[in-house]
Structures are given as C-alpha cells and as structure tokens.
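Worked example 4.2. Below are the chains of a multi-component assembly; read each line carefully before continuing.
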Amino acid sequence: MADIAFLLLIFFLAATTMDSDTGLMRQLPAIPDPNVPQDVNKINDRNILEVKVNKDNLLLVEGQLTEFDQLREIAHNFILNPNDEPSMPEREVVYLPFFGNVAVTKAVISLQNDIGTKYGVYLAVQNELIAARAKLRDDVARQEFGIPYDRLDEDRKSAVDDYYKVPISEAEPKRIGD
Amino acid sequence: MARFVKTGKKTIKAISTSSLPDIVFMILFFFMAVTTMRETDIMVTVRIPEATEGKVLEKKSLASFIYIGEPLESFQALYGKEPKIQLNDSFKELADIQDFIAQEREQLNEADKAKMLVVLKIDRDTKMGIVTDVKQALRRASALKIMYANTNVDKITSF
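Applying the procedure described above to all two chains together yields the following structure tokens:
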C-alpha cells in the first residue's frame, strides 16, 4: 500500500508545478474599424499624463526627464489634482451608484515606448502607474465603505473603478528615435 | 570482578509501519491539491520581471501562454540568440500567432470564449520591438485580454 502511495506521490512531484501565475491584467484596444469614422473629440491636453520611455530606458513624464522612483508620486498627484490647478486634469460630475453625484477626474495616462525599450523597464513603469491608481481606489474605498478595495463586492468595486477610471492607454506603436 | 548481568529482553520492538500508507497518502493529497500540471516545456530563457501589483491568475483553463525570450543554450545553435516566440511546444513566427489564438479559442466552450486570456511570459531583457509586434498580432486576432506575467515583490529592486 505504502509503495503504491509513494509511487503516486513521486509521479505528482515530477509532473506538477507549485508556482501560481501572477501578472498585470491589461485590456488591449480593439483594432479601429476603417469604415467607422473615428471619434474626433480629442482629449484635452491637461487631462493627459504623457509617459515616455526611450531606448536607453530613460523616463520622460510630461516632457520632463524623471527618475523612476518619482513616477508613482507624480501619477498620484496628477490624478488627484489636490489644488485644482488648471494645468492638471479637470473633473466632471457624474452619477455613480453608492456615491451619488460626484465629481470624478477625467485624467488619462498615455504610455509610449520605443522599440528598443527593455521589457522589464516597460513593465515596471506600467506597474507604477497601476499602483498609483490602485492606491487612490483603495483610499476612496476605505473612506466610503470603511474597508479596503480588495474586500469590496463586485458592484462596489466597479463603482470605485468608475470613481477613478484613469485609463492607462498604450498608444499606437511609434518609432520615437532609435 | 563485576559482571554484566543480562536483565530482561534485549531486542527493541520495531516501529509499527501500519500507519505509513496513511501518512504518504496525506502528503500525496496535499500535493494533488496545491500543485498544477506542468503543461509545456519552456524552450526559452524567461526571467519574469518584478512588479508589486500582480494579480493571481485564477482560471488557468482560460489562459493561453506565449513565451518570449532567448532560446535555451541547447537550441541556440539552431535558432540563434535573438529572442524568439514560443507557442505550445515549438518556436513560432509572428504570423503564427493568429492561428494559435484561433486554435486555443476553439478549445474553450462557447461561454468562455469571451473570457479568454493570453498570458505573456516575457524575459525582462527583451526589447519592446518584438513585444509590440506580438501585441499588435493579438489585437488583430482580437485576443484583447492579456496578462503580463510577473513575480510579485514588495518593492521593485531591479528591472
């Protein structure tokens, strides 16, 4: 009996892996249909945080050379716009379930990379941007419902998601100097 | 002269092994519960980058995997050192991605087709050129839900 059990055990040890996969979930934009006229409403410049990474893995945020460590804070400040500065994103009053009528930010983050950018750097930048947004969502969840974002139910989660929508768009690939 | 006097029995009783199968079965069930089947042999070097915001992949059955990285040393004579795309068990070209996605989608049942997820396991030193090409190919194949595989850490120390 023990021999058979050992045999099975060794089979499972050899044929299986322990690690679970983790990763950053992203949604790619659909390929635009050439027959459908494109939305001409351009997003106001003040609402876009432009993040570029070049082939030397240097970071350019809104035209400023930036250290990687500062990115999360810059993104946080940009989305929050605490002092209602005219150069930072505007707000729009919308109705959200659980919140009622609230002023939500219209901020958008645009991420551009060069074909020579290292994937590790690109992912780290994405991670920082997602982290900044997740922090704000968590804050509002704690404030409004008293519990962290991770423990909210689906309806409340999607309401909080709408509160800080902040799409992180991956621009159409472009060569920016190689 | 003193003499050693034998007192009582000398032999020690062997430990009973009757519970051994139970113990081994317990370990076996533990491994059956916490592990998952190895699906493909990875033929490229993939050092997954670090991130802090990674989410656990919950439904592995919905996921298809694309590996990108330098071929392993044993394949380098044949395929060179440039990063290659691995789908299932072989090296493939960009043009094959569309077929691969169609094939993977075919294997899912009707209700799950919309939830299909593509997991990109990419070496951290890969240049974005090939990654962007793969992303564009995925867009054309309308596999829009993707996941960049990473290892979760508390703070990113290297990229």
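Take a moment to check your reading of the output against the notes. The longest helix of chain B spans residues 20-34. The mean pLDDT of chain B is 86.
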